Amino acid sequence: MKLHRLLSITRKEFIQIKRDRPSLVISFIMPVMMLLLFGYAVTTDVDNISMVVLDQDNHKPGREIVSAFKNTGYYSPVTYVNNIKKLEDKLDKGAVKSGLIIPVGYAQNIRREEPAQIQYLVDGSDPLIARTALNMAKITVQNLNRNIQIQNLNSRGIALSETPPVDLRTRAYYNPGLESLKFNVPGLIGLVLQNITVMLTAFTLVRERERGTLEQLMVTPLKNFELMLGKLIPYILIAFIDVALVLGVGVWWFKVPIRGNLLLLLVLSLLFLIFALGLGILFSTLARTQLQAMQMTMLFILPSVILSGFVFPRESMPDIIRWLGYGIPLTYYLEILRGIMLKGVGLIKLWNDIIPLTAFGFVTIALASLRFRKKVE
After folding, report:
1. What is the mean pLDDT of the chain?
2. Which of 43, 152, 238, 356 is at a distance of 20 to 30 A from 230, taking alpha carbons?
3. What are phi and psi of 98, to 5 degrees?
4. Other CB atoms within 10 Å distance of the CB of residue 43
């Protein structure tokens, strides 16, 4: 490999990028915009569950159970209706996600210490919201039952401690508040970097072909690897700036800490960028037009979102689908991001992800180089 030839093709690519200023601006603005947009939009935390109440009893115990639901912090706003038809209409229209019905005689049954029924309705069209709403309703009623039992026993002169006999102490490692934002932001960083870098290079050789300059490259003494590396270097620098941007937004704006070694994170991010950029080059050698290059890029991006563990837990996937996820480099990079940022783990704990990610990078670059040589022939 001749250094002056490598520098020449690198300089040429820098000039070409500089002339395409809209794409250059987009390459810096889009990662930040996507991270901000998806950082707020992609969340699995469920709160502010709207609830409509039909209180047919209209006594203090009924109002207490509504207050118990409000005090959980999960149900807001709470509105009232005066008949079942209006309640069902609100559920049908999607105006509310849940409904509470307190029947006539509820307060009387409570005073007599007889079973008192209430009905809780939930819109099951969104299973995530429905599961959270049902679980919180069960917990709320269980706590209310215990308080009522304690009051009844105390009224008879039977002292009962309000402290439960079994005191369960829980602790969540790495994300004590169980905030989905702290789980999602590292995943978004990986996804955004992959998408931007693959798209950056997916058009390089296609653009050369459409402009008629690819034939000029073919007659130069450039070797395949020199051409691939020369085209990659400018985009590696741009992509590395994108890494700094999205990490800065994740830490400064979303308050997601980097508990591990920042230098290690940057080095492993560079490794992932090499793969992503090499993949874009490979798509560029396969495609005849920029439209085909875009289609190949999207064909790769969509499965990587689903199978990498970015949103859906891979542990719950069928075995064959989970194994397909091992063929996606983003799967390993997400483990690296979350491991370093949230858990603070080091190099020793990440070898199982670093080795396959490195292999993907070398194989992709090699395939892109070989594919271009076949085009020249």
Report:
1. 83
2. 356
3. -150, 160
4. 14
Q: What is the mean pLDDT of residues 291-307?
A: 86
117 by DSSP, 3-state: which? coil
User: In 3-state terms, what secondary structure has residue 254?
Assistant: coil
Give the percent of the chain with pLDDT over 90.
24
Rounded distance, CA 87 to CA 251, Å? 44
Contacts 24+ apart (CB under 8 A), 75-79: 75/49, 75/50, 75/51, 75/136, 76/47, 76/48, 76/49, 76/50, 77/50, 77/51, 78/50, 78/51, 78/52, 78/53, 79/50, 79/51, 79/52, 79/53
Domain boundaries, the chain: 3-43+179-376, 49-155
Handedness of CA 217, 13, 195, 362 (dihedral sign): positive
Structure confidence at residue 374 (pLDDT): 44
Class of domain 49-155: alpha beta
Q: Tell me which range, 59-68, 141-150, 157-166, 289-298, is most confidently predicted by mean pLDDT.
A: 59-68
Mean pLDDT confidence for 333-358:
92
Query: What is d(CA 242, CA 159) in angstroms, rounded to the nearest whole number?
Result: 64
The span from the CA of 269 to the CA of 240, in Å, is 8
- As to burial, measured by CB atoms within 10 angstroms (0-12 exposed, 13-18 middle, 19+ buried), residue 110 is buried
Q: Does the pLDDT of residue 220 top 60, yes or no?
A: yes
Question: Does the CA dihedral 38-44-47-49 come out positive or negative?
Answer: positive
Q: What is the predicted pLDDT for the residue at 370? A: 79
Query: How many residues belong to the chain?
Result: 377
CA distance 123 to 229: 55
How far apart (Å, rounded) are the C-alpha atoms in residues 252 and 268?
A: 21
DSSP 176-214: TT--HHHHHHHHHHHHHHHHHHHHHHHTHHHHHHHHT-H
Residues 291, 293, 299, CA angle at the centre, nearest 5°?
105
In angstroms, the CA 326 to CA 332 distance is 8
The per-residue pLDDT for 163 is 63
CA pair distance 37, 192, nearest whole angstrom: 11
Residues facing 102 on adjacent strands: 55
Q: What would you report as the CA-atom Rg of the chain, rounded to the nearest whole angstrom?
A: 29
Residues 8, 13, 16, 18: is their CA dihedral positive or negative?
negative
